[in-house]
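Glycosyltransferase, pasting as requested.
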Amino acid sequence: MLKPFEVHIQAEPLTRFEGELDAAGWSALQAQAARTRASMAGRTFWNVSSTARGGGVAEMLPWLLAYARGAGVDARWVVLTGTPEFFHITKRLHHALHGSRGDGSPLGKAEHDRYDEVLRDNVEELLVMVRPGDVVLLHDPQTVGLAPALARAGARVAWRCHVGRDTPNDEVARAWEFLAPGLAAARLTVFSRAAYVPPQCADRAVIIQPSIDIFAVKNQPLAPGAVRAILAYTGLLRGEPDAPEPAFTRADGVPARVSRGADIVRLGAAPAPDTPLLVQVSRWDPLKDPAGVLEGFALLLRQSPDLRAELVLAGPAVTSVADDPEAATTLQDVIALWQQQPHFVRQHVHLACLPMGDLEENAAIVNALQRHAAVVTQKSLQEGFGLTLTEAMWKTRPVVASAVGGLQDQVVHGVNGLLVRDPGDRAEFAGAVRSLLADPQRAARLGLQAREHVRAHFTAARHLTDFARLLEQLDARG
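Structure tokens follow.
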């Protein structure tokens, strides 16, 4: 029998934000926390997702719930378990919500029966823990089928969809048809963009944009020497004589060092420390278009053979993300494409699987890689929001992103980054990257504006306030 498991979260104090907010903002956050603490007294705020590692949901939930607990709310995180067949079906749904056919496999009654069977096992354990009046926030297609049983047990259920497509098509409609039975039991639905809301949710939809924790290991300040040392130890840069330790600070304040290397496909040596790097850090997912990044960079090299820049495509170790069965295939496709490139191109491209055995170590490696990048890109074909771009913008990196989904909510073209209007246009992408590599002053100016945009719109203080209002709305609809 499949059973969900709980990820235990340590409380973090809201006082961390006192220095990041003005007096009015800090006072408002404290007042909202007091109201939420009172309204949730004796109740639990459950969050249910499909994986504890890899992807934006697993990135956000630990620290959002840690701050909620720091505010005095009993916020808890449960991760469901599933079969390979279940995760194949939910990956197909993930593609369909983006308007893509994925592998083209069916989403019919037989698939729905297998989906429901896995969730029936999981919900039995949840019903032991969840009490009437508790709030349950379900995340993404993997969990929506839990809603009816939880609602019947007296929980106040909301469902959050982190993905979507601006212009719905037949595939999007197919996904909503599959999810409709579970979706009907949710009091409220939460989306990252208004364009993602389907007609059947229009009267109970709330818009909450994702955010980053600026205090997390992935976003903590790192000295340039530590950045280079971490990347050298991982194998992503050439080492330097007398380099410092590859050190970072864990979330609990304890000093640590990177002790694992990355698995890297490359031809020749690692980049020199002063080589400008174009970097994309994402899951190995065809919708993140790692193949398109490689092809666009190859075009850039052919157009500018004297360009002194190299590409790092980085993602998690492919066996580390339970709910993403396509990762290994996508990586192999990218490696095959890399092998087809001329020798000159392969010398300038590095494909890296980052270690996931220690999630804080992984966060430190991503932090260092983003900070070292000359340009960070997120050239997705579809994108729910794109937190890796938010992270890079916080680090003052100049960014190039596709004008799709939530990426276009973050980047104001020419002000805090560059948008590629057609994500399939390799020439447009290559030109945008070239323009930033050729003009470091402009790139630096865009990076500074990017950090301030994130500070104003995409940090945890705003997100926590949105969560508190969601809880109020759920109670009001009771």
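Note for the archive: The first strand starts at residue 5 and ends at 7.
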